[in-house]
Each structure stands twice: as structure tokens, then as C-alpha cells.
User: Which sequence fits this backbone?
């Protein structure tokens, strides 16, 4: 309970105790001071010691026994001075005890609530810090995973077409700029991420034959839309990994729509699953997508993915609801 609130509550309590009609009605000044001393003693003994130490720890009977003994002692002193004890004085002493216990219990309850709120706030802050650290860790894992796949593609390209390999390196240079600089932020402009995806697609198209039908349709209808960096690239990588066959017609159709409320991203590709002996990629990218979506957009995203009924195509669809500013 804040200090100012405590002071006001104590002043109000003493106003009630000392303005009761029956207080000091027939007492002279020395006996009035003795009355005040008795009330103050009982009030603060209960407030500072008996209630927190005994009453709150389950020793309620002992608490009331001590209070009864104190009451008897104070009444005995008054009787010794006057030879008589007014019932109004006994009443005021009892009221002081009850108010003191009630105030102390209320104060302890309020302190408990405040401590619980502080603990919950601390837990929430710790959880947010942990999630942010994990998100950054996943981002740093994404970088080498993406680079490994891209460099493998360029390495394969150098074996049969040096000129195209040079073009691929230029594409990679633009992509590295995005990774090294833009990727250090928690979120990047969606348009920058689109440029990154387009560079990757162009890089992959260099080494593909004419049997690949690839489209990338983009419709961004709101300026300033942001997204967690590199969260979509594993899906595009996966489409190229599992959607390309050297002997069959292939397709990869990518669509991205965004407005001020949502980002909608989908990929449909021909489905040519790798054999059990092919362990390239190890599924790391898609695992990271799941973790990063849950950390960055928990409760605000939906992701459906899987093969079509005839197993000829593989579809992946992510919808992200944007947080309102």
C-alpha cells in the first residue's frame, strides 16, 4: 500500500475512534490521555505485531488470548485509578482492536496483490526477452542455411557455364546486402523482402531448363508494411528443392498479397519428393519457419501446407494478421 494511502487511512481511523460519541464523555484530562494511550497501544500492537506474526500464520486463538490479556490489563489500570470502568471505554478498546486487525489484513492483501502483479510483469518481461533472443538466434541460423543452399547452386553452375555463374554471383551480392544489413532489424519493409525473394528466384532460374513454369505475383496495397526478415525464403527454397524434376514439366507459382491488415503468401509447386537417400537440407528451413512464426506472430498466423489429393502438387499458404499500430 503506498505511503500516502497508509497515512490517510490511519488518520481516518483515528478520526472514527476519537469522534465516537461515548469517548471521553466523563473522563478528566489525565484519564483521557490514559484512554488514548490504551487505544494507541492496542491498535499498533495488533497492526505491527499480533496480526502479521500470529493471526496471519494461523495462530488466531493465541492472538485473541493476548488481546484479551491486554484488554484486561488496561481495564485494570483504569479501575485502579477510578474504582469504576465505563462500558464505553471497553467498547472503544474493542473497536480499536477490530479496526487494527481489519486494516492490517487489508494492507497485507494489497501487498500480496502488488507483489503478484510485479512477479507476473517480471515473468512476462523475461518471456518476451527469451522469445526475442530465440528469434534472433533463429535468424542467425537462417543466414548460413540459406547461404549454404545458394552457394551449392552457384558451385554447380560454375561447372558448365562460367558466364551464368558470374551473373549468379551478382544476384547473390544483392541478396547478401539484404542479409548483412536489413536482416539485423526485428522487421524489414515487405517491399525489401520481395526484392530479396525476386533476386533469389532470378538466381535459381539461371540454372533451370525451359521445362520450368515459374511465376511470382506481388500485390502490396499498403505502404510501410513490415515483416520478420527471411521468414519466407525457406518456403521458396523448399519449392525449388521438391518442385523440380530434370525429366518432367515443373511449375512454381508464388503469390504475395498484402494490405494494412494482413500478409498472405502462398506457393504451389509440382511435387517431386526427394528419396529417402537424399538428406540435403535436412528440413532445417521449414522447422525454423514454424518456430519463427510462433515467436513473432503467435496467435496471429495460420499456415496450411501439404500435397494435393493426387500428390501432383505441393501447396503452402501462410496468412499473417498484422498488429495494429
Assistant:
Amino acid at each position: 500500500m503506498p505511503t500516502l494511502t497508509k497515512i490517510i487511512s490511519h488518520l481516518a481511523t483515528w478520526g472514527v475512534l476519537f469522534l465516537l460519541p461515548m469517548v471521553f464523555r466523563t473522563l478528566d484530562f489525565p484519564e483521557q490521555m490514559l484512554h488514548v494511550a490504551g487505544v494507541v497501544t492496542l491498535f499498533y500492537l495488533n497492526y505491527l505485531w499480533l496480526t502479521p506474526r500470529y493471526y496471519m500464520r494461523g495462530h488466531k486463538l493465541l492472538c485473541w488470548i493476548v488481546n484479551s490479556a491486554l484488554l484486561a490489563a488496561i481495564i485494570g489500570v483504569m479501575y485502579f485509578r477510578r474504582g469504576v470502568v465505563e462500558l464505553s471505554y471497553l467498547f472503544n478498546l474493542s473497536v480499536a482492536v477490530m479496526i487494527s486487525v481489519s486494516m492490517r489484513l487489508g494492507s497485507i492483501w494489497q501487498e500480496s496483490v502488488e507483489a503478484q502483479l510485479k512477479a507476473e510483469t517480471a515473468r512476462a518481461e523475461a518471456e518476451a526477452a527469451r522469445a526475442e533472443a530465440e528469434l534472433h538466434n533463429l535468424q542467425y541460423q537462417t543466414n548460413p542455411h540459406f547461404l549454404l543452399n545458394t552457394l551449392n547452386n552457384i558451385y554447380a553452375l560454375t561447372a558448365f557455364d562460367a558466364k551464368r555463374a558470374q551473373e549468379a554471383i551478382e544476384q547473390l551480392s544483392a541478396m547478401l546486402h539484404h542479409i548483412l544489413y536489413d536482416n539485423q532489424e526485428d522487421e524489414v519493409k515487405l517491399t525489401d523482402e520481395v526484392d530479396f525473394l525476386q533476386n533469389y528466384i532470378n538466381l535459381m532460374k539461371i540454372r533451370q531448363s525451359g521445362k520450368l513454369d515459374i511465376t511470382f505475383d506481388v500485390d502490396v496495397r499498403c505502404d510501410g508494411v513490415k515483416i520478420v526478415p527471411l521468414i519466407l525464403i525457406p518456403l521458396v527454397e523448399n519449392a525449388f528443392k521438391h518442385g523440380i524434376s530434370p525429366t518432367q514439366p515443373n511449375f512454381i507459382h508464388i503469390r504475395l498479397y498484402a494490405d494494412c491488415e494482413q500478409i498472405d503468401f502462398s506457393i504451389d509447386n509440382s511435387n517431386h519428393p526427394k528419396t529417402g537417400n537424399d538428406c540435403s537440407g535436412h528440413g532445417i528451413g521449414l522447422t525454423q519457419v514454424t518456430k519463427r512464426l510462433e515467436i513473432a506472430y503467435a496467435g496471429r498466423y495460420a499456415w496450411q501446407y501439404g500435397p494435393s489429393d493426387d500428390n501432383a502438387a505441393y501447396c503452402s499458404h501462410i496468412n499473417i494478421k498484422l498488429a495494429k499500430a
Summary: Residues 160-321 form a domain with the Heat Shock Protein 90 fold (CATH 3.30.565.10).
